[in-house]
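Marked as duplicate of an earlier ticket. Keeping the data here for the record.
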Amino acid sequence: MSEVLAKCEEYHAWGVEVAWIVDPESKRAWVYRSGQRPMEVPPAGSLAADGISILLQDALSVLSD
């Protein structure tokens, strides 16, 4: 996970405001906003950023196909 967070920090340095971290094996996800700590998405929650939103369940179903 530390490598994933380091990669997100790179994205933030490039100007990306929000990174989504999705672990399809554990069925968990986090929203990582620049300058903040990653926030875990609840199982019935959504990944959201700047007018884009996807239910976590939908994201996981696409990744497991």
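See parent ticket for discussion. The chain has a mean pLDDT of 93.
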